[in-house]
Amino acid sequence: MARIIPIISPKQGTGKTFVCLHLAHALASKGHGVCLLATGWNLEDEGAWFDKHLPGDLKEVLYGRSRLEDVIGRDGGLQVIADSDGLKSVADGRTEDLPLVAEMLSGTEGCDYLIVDAPSGVSQRAMAFCLTVEEAVLVLTLDSQCLTAAFDLLRAMAANGFKGVVKTVFNQVRNMSMARRAFGKFRDSTRRYLDLDLEMLGIIHYDPKAREASRDKRPLPNAKASRAFRDIQEMAMAIDQEVPTDRQALPMEDFWKGFFRHMRCLLPQPVQVARKIAAASVSEARPADSAKAGRDDRALERIAAALEQLLREVQVIRQNLEKGAGARLDGEPAQFHEPLKLDWQDYVNNRGRR
């Protein structure tokens, strides 16, 4: 069994990959077996974090062209698996292939930790990882746009049924008291509007060395002299001292089965779409039209809420259909009728025969 920790961020530029890599190294330095699953990575670009490029992409394994052990990169006690979009392609494929793929991916069973560098933003894969283990580490900065995008990301997770623990990390912080105040306000908002409770995992100080390392895609030089590295070490210690729940520490095969199940049942996000439309309508409105723009915003929010409820019901129907595999409630095979032709000319030509 391994503890699975998805690390997410609302947008690019928060230093998420930097945090993932150094947190994985910090846990490995304590003698743990650690695997870093880097989703959305490009081998040529992101592989530059290591002295030599990673040997392969997980997509090659999922398509049957390589073995799992052939694409694992090793850096000391850390194993690294890069995936561009193989997991998404498999989840969009045939349902009957998923158990075999889950068994194939359970080859990292010997690890104590699986750190997942999830794609940034409201991503299908990021939400599926979080929903499977009911845990997420959210990397933020104090930028107002980042905090707004983070609220949208958590709102999308809540709409898909996430009720777990979100641990927050503020990165590249110059003012510690400002970060604590921002966290307090952000936590109050998510608790009030999303019914989600946030925890503070850590605050990473601003460090020029860390910014240079992130820009050049290389681990921190002389890491013990880096304040940012010490902050990440403290985060690793806090994680290592926790007792994981049954959802957070899973056999690998069970984890992957749960991941693919959530990938196929995730809801679209009509609220986010409605917000973009509302923002566009407000920006284009003239001052005299501000009252009308406000009414439009409220109408769009109501439409978004209705769509969200409808999509939840569709999700339940889809899950029941997949379980029933086309059978009726009484156990008899489902009867399918010839579809209606919604064609006016066809109706005119055949109305005398009906």
Overview of this structure, please?
The chain is built from 13 helices and nine strands. With 354 residues, the protein is an alpha/beta fold. α5 (124-133) crosses α10. It starts with a strand and ends with a helix. Mean pLDDT is 77; it is low at 326-342.
Q: How many separate domains make up the residues?
A: 2
Over all CA atoms, what is the radius of gyration? 24 Å
Beta-strand level of the residues, as a percent range? 5-15%
Mean pLDDT: 77
Task: Name the helicity range.
Answer: 40-55%
CATH homologous superfamily classification of the largest domain: P-loop containing nucleotide triphosphate hydrolases
With helices defined by DSSP (H or I, 4 residues minimum), what is the helix count?
13
The biggest beta sheet is recorded as: 9 strands, mixed
The fold-level CATH name of the largest domain is: Rossmann fold
Q: What are the secondary-structure elements, in order, as H or E?
A: EHEHEEHHEHEHEHEHHEHHHH
For the record, the CATH class of the largest domain is: Alpha Beta
Task: Give the structure's gist in a few sentences.
The protein is an alpha/beta fold and 354 residues long. 48% of the residues lie in helices and 15% in strands.
Question: What's the layout of helices and strands?
Answer:
Blueprint: E1 2-8, H1 16-28, E2 34-39, H2 58-62, E3 73-75, E4 78-83, H3 86-91, H4 98-105, E5 113-117, H5 124-133, E6 135-140, H6 144-159, E7 165-173, H7 176-193, E8 198-205, H8 208-216, H9 227-241, E9 249-250, H10 252-263, H11 270-284, H12 290-324, H13 344-350
Parallel strand pairs: 1-5, 1-6, 2-4, 2-5, 6-7, 7-8
Antiparallel strand pairs: 1-9, 3-4
